[in-house]
Amino acid sequence: MSGHMNLTLKVWRQKNTQTPGKFVTYKAENISPDMSFLEMLDVVNESLTRKNEEPIYFDHDCREGICGSCSLYINGHPHGPKKAITTCQLHMRTFSDGETITIEPWRSAAFPIVKDLATDRSAFDRIQQAGGYVSINTGGVPDANVIPIPKVIADEAFNSATCIGCGACVAACKNASAMLFTSAKITQLGLLPQGQPERYSRVQAMVAQMDQEGFGNCTNTGACEAECPKEITLNNIAFMNNDFFSAKLFREEHAHDHTGGE
Amino acid sequence: MSEFKQTFNSSLGKKLIMALTGLFLCTFLIVHLGGNLLLFKNDQGFAFNSYANFLTHFPPIEVIAYLLYLAIIVHAVYALVLTIKNRRARPVGYAVQPKSDASWSSKNMGLLGSILLLFIVIHMSDFWFTYKYNNVLGFKEYRTDLATNQTSVSDYTPPVADFERSISTENNVEIVRVKDLHARIQTSFSQLWYVIFYVIAMGAVSFHLLHGFQSAFRTLGWVHKKYTPIVYFFGTWLFAVIIPIGFALMPIIYYIKSL
Amino acid sequence: MSLDAKIPQGPLAEKWSKHKFNLKLVNPSNKRKYDIIVVGTGLAGASAAASLAELGYNVKSFCFQDSPRRAHSIAAQGGINAAKNYQNDGDSVYRLFYDTIKGGDYRAREGNVYRLAEVSVNIIDQCVAQGVPFAREYGGLLDNRSFGGSQVSRTFYARGQTGQQLLLGAYSALNRQIHLGKVKMYTRTEMLDVVVVDGHAKGIVTRNLKTGEIETHAGHAVLLATGGYGNVFYLSTNAIGSNVTAAWRAHKRGAYFANPCYTQIHPTCIPVTGDHQSKLTLMSESLRNDGRVWAPKTVETAQKLQKKEIAASDVKEEDRDYFLERKYPSFGNLVPRDVASRNAKEMSDEGKGVGTTGLAVYLDFAEAIQRLGEDTVRAKYGNLFDMYLQITDENPYKQPMRIYPAVHYTMGGLWVDYNLSTNLPGLYAMGECNFSDHGANRLGASALMQGLSDGYFVIPYTLGDYLATIGPKKVDTSHPAFEQTKQDVIAYNNKLLSLKGNKTVVEYHRELGHIMWEYCGMARTEEGLTKAKALIKELKADFWKNAIVTGENEEVNAALERAGRVADFIELGELMVTDALTRRESCGGHFRLESQTEEGEALRDDENFAFVSAWEFTGENEEEVLHKEELIFENVKLTQRSYK
Questions:
Q1: What are the transmembrane regions (chain B) (predicted)?
Q2: Distance (Å, rounded) from C-alpha C118 to C-alpha C114?
């Protein structure tokens, strides 16, 4: 294992959504290669705190790559240069002594900056709220084994369901498109028998909400797929497109207004 | 109607339009290349000029041609609309250039498309517009002895100003009098800068379609474990290799011939 | 106040059905007149908020994360138990009940545990109907795996991400209700106090983490689903944000805190690499099926390994101590979590630990690779090996893994009765936040089951009874108690913000963690606990003098958030130590060195300690008062565990 290293950080600092931000340079000294990227920032923050300066704010929680809180656009990559991991799983041994690391927040009109490196990703929640569910109430459901699901279908649905909602797809996309995120849920439920009754209304509702949030458009560059920490594939977007056109052009059902009447 | 309006105003609807117009233009490329291969026929432009004449005078083709122009315009306008929208989706860019894995062509469709649009404008004004609306082209008369199948060619000066073409048979000799686009091509392609521009444009076609063809299928949602590899195969070999090379060879060969 | 658990009378199997019938109902048209506050959006919180909204109540849901989907339930890996008996291997509700009671070392209530086992089957049905992609067999039916502490296959799973999938299921149900307008969602909002009006919980005080605004919210009932307090140890497998603040502030307003000393320590975590470490990562226990645990026989060898002068593979066979196999010949490496954890710590304490910190033992797959071949090992554990390589940069196919125990789950929590109501009327606690179902030790794959059971299938019934009793009269924040509580919170925050000392809050947290781990961790003694209590008191005094809290209230202020949480952890830490001192027996996750069998196993004292300890807060810096709820066992016979 190599020794400790010293790094230069260029970090985006922004007080709040309204105030313009700027890059500030910090030294990260005596960094162990065993630290995670966020632990490295913890060290920097500790030293800032001791100087009674405001620590760098970033979203993080589980620190094991599943909650989707952490973000950070590191040297041109969402979640840093390594594949299939989140920032909290990125270790400092990926970098070399003396390196300059630029850390930016996700950049998207739909993800306004909350503070420093943290953005407001509630647009994702609203897309899910528009239809990312099976409309059933608690209780009164059939026995779990009443619906057999072919293993391949269940596995594929699972692959789509592993999305952690971190927003790396939006951050990576040159158009800041949220189609990978949106399509993952549409595909998961569209593949499963439980999702069939609302399949065509769901896709319309979710796409409409996605459009409203001000995300860009997919041009199939595949950057999202390449940066997704859970390796959700571009095929999900094709699945969504197919269902959407099918719904809009060949079917009679509308995006049902879930709020309409009880 | 508003249902459709809504559909095509949605993000996916706009993509659908891009995909459909794009694929339509792709099919045209095959036809266009097929016809243009006649340029390689060593007959002093007889086949090519006849073909050009056929294209401009056969009504169904005329209709398709207008669809084609419409497709080009729609494709370009929607590209512009989508690009503006996409730019708005990221008002503040990154300080570090994105390094995410994505093919160069997929990230530069706008640039490639703009080159192509410029190319199409020059190309059309040089050939199509000149052919149709400018009286600068001369005429050729091809006389084919139907017995021996020998063709001779000579310049022809039409007796009336609005002469278009004529086909007649006299004494077992077929006489075809048509506009001589072929000569125009020979002149154009003898200029080096023009050839270079054409070759660059065909490079743009290659990269544009390398991404565009398969992307259109993705947009339509036609992704399938078994068929998608075939789409990629055609997108790469036919649309990004054979067709652009085929087109690019024309100015190159004519230029070499002109030397 | 007497502690009435309100366990229904009658035969075990009929208690819940009978109770459900006896509970008062709220008329459907009256439901919309009730406002319910649900704090936390993990499995328990999200499922409760959704289910109550579906019934027609108006729900306000709160989470401190930026989205309800990020609650730490998402990180659960293994699976969820249910007594479906799909495998035809003899499972039943009673067997799940029995395994859970026994696994909890007979410190849980029979009635609660039986209900949990009973509704476990409904949970699976519910989740499948939501579109949760559980693992399936080729025939299209659900797959099961077996898990520690049971002899049947009853664990349903979704690869290694069961918690994620279940939470996203509950999140989707919650989203539907948000869309319908029945749930109002407050994200980045932290609960800082409970408002008590005439002895009933009637609302909460929150801080908007984006603007710093201190707000009050009123409701007919307040439901806490705010998770466990494992982060009192600083390092745990919990998320960084996981905290006890909501539960602790409720405790300080009168809710009893039960069994705080019951903590579960998981043996196979990736060891700490240094002081910078912010959290620990769990690796599935299944690794112990094929890995052999060892430490060097001598301290000298261990030191050479720590300094990296030699590699693990350089240690000769005769210089290795396969201590679990040596001490427990029949169970070997497969002894229960607590036993494996304790032994690893002992080795490290004796100076025989490995890795740079000396806080680890080896889990060696060399023998398994030789026996099964690397491909088979890869097929079984590939993802775990990859994860290990990712974090440590060491290839476990070549060198043994280093493992160390880590705090993983806390069985203690707010005291609740059978209805999940705390002793403070109107205040309920669900999921890991309450103490109810796991006794002194939780079985694998039971946490998800309990969270969802509470949220989907218990609270929707039991809450109605309370609501029907108090009636639908509108509640709002006009009562002076709201303003008073709000002012209390503002004053407390200002006190925190005035701290401009020389030591960061994280340092205090780390120090607290060291104390807790050392003296109130895997092995506890009268002496150590007494010392810990004094140390924590000192730490607390020092905190309120020398901590640094930067920034101000009216902004995003992570330092303030953390300071409030750490202050609460310090107080909780003291109570945990007090509880551990009081419980002079060993049981489950609570191991008192003074109380062990000749074989070194946890020795319960059923005669004197078959009770739930419920602690009452009596004032700042006052000793808490212990209330005992006797545990009555009518259906199971209390036995001693042995793994020799």
A1: 16-40, 63-84, 109-131, 192-210, 230-256
A2: 6
Residue to substitute from A152, A219, A242, A245, interface B, most B β-carbons within 10 A = A219
Report chain A residues whose CB lies below 8 A from the CB of B109: 219
Q: Where are the domains of chain A?
A: 5-115, 122-250
Residues B122 and B217 in one domain: yes
Q: Are both B163 and B248 inside the same structural domain? A: no
Catalytic residue among C207, C288, C292, C337: C337
Q: In this complex, do A136 and C130 lie within 8 Å of one another by their Cβ atoms?
A: yes
Run of H or E residues at C248: helix C245-252
Q: How far apart are the C-alpha atoms of B25 and A19, rounded to whole Å?
A: 47
Do C169 and C260 lie in one domain? The reply is yes
Neighbours of chain A (3+ CB pairs under 8 A): B, C
Residues C55 and C189 in one domain: yes
Find the residue in A nearest to B85 (Cα).
A216
Band the pLDDT of C600: cuts 50, 70, 90. Answer: confident
The total domain count for chain B is 2
Q: Give the one of B11, B90, B219 whose C-beta lies nearest to A108's C-beta.
A: B90
Provide CB contacts within 8 A for C485, sequence distance 6+.
C193, C194, C195, C196, C205, C216
Q: For the structural domain made of A122-250, what CATH number should be given?
A: 1.10.1060.10
| Among candidates A10, A217, A227 on the partner chain, residue whose Cβ is nearest the Cβ of B11 | A217
* Residue type (1 letter), C301: T
Q: What is the pLDDT of residue A262?
A: 36
Six-digit token string for B55: 């294209």
Yes or no: say if A9 and A44 are a contact pair by the CB < 8 Å rule: yes
Q: Is C584 a catalytic residue?
A: no
Cα gap A42→B97, rounded to integer Å: 26
Helix (H), strand (E) at residue C60: strand C58-62
Domain assignment of residue C361, yes or no = yes
- Asked whether residue C53 is domain-assigned, the answer is yes
Instruction: For residues B167 and B236, state if they share a domain.
Output: no
User: Among A54, C169, C283, A84, which residue's Cα sits nearest to residue B101?
Assistant: A84
Contact A10 B15 (CB under 8 A): no
Which among B93, B95, B219 is the nearest to A241, CB-wise?
B219
pLDDT for A60-97, tens place per residue? 999 999 999 999 999 999 999 999 999 999 999 999 99
Same domain, C189 and C276: no
CB distance from C274 to chain A under 8 Å?
yes
Domain that residue C180 falls in: 16-74+162-264+409-480
- B12 part of a folded domain: yes
CATH of domain A5-115: 3.10.20.30
Across the interface, whether the CB atoms of A174 and B86 are under 8 A apart is answered yes
* pLDDT bracket for residue A261 (50, 70, 90): very low
In a domain, C241, yes or no: yes
Do C183 and C56 lie in one domain? The reply is: yes
Residue numbers of the domain that contains B160: 138-179
Residues paired with residue C295 on neighbouring β-strands, in sequence order: C321
| Shortest alpha-carbon distance between residue A146 and chain B (Å) | 29
User: Both C68 and C176 in a single domain?
Assistant: yes
Based on the fold, state whether residues B163 and B247 are members of the same structural domain.
no
Query: Cβ contact (<8 Å) for A75 and B99?
Result: yes
Give the full edge-to-edge strand order of the sheet including C145-146: C80-81, C153-156, C145-146
C101 has a pLDDT exceeding 70? yes
Residues B154-204: tens digit of each pLDDT: 898 888 877 888 888 888 899 999 989 999 999 999 999 999 999 999 999
Q: Which amino acid is at A250?
A: F
B122 and B162 share a domain? no
How far is residue C461's CA from residue B96's CA, in Å, rounded to a whole number? 55
Spell out where C369-508 has E strands. 401-410, 413-414, 427-429, 503-504
Q: Output DSSP code: residue C442.
A: P
Whether ipTM tops 0.95, in short, is yes
CB contact at 8 A, C585 and C595: yes
- Same domain? For B168 and B195 the reply is no
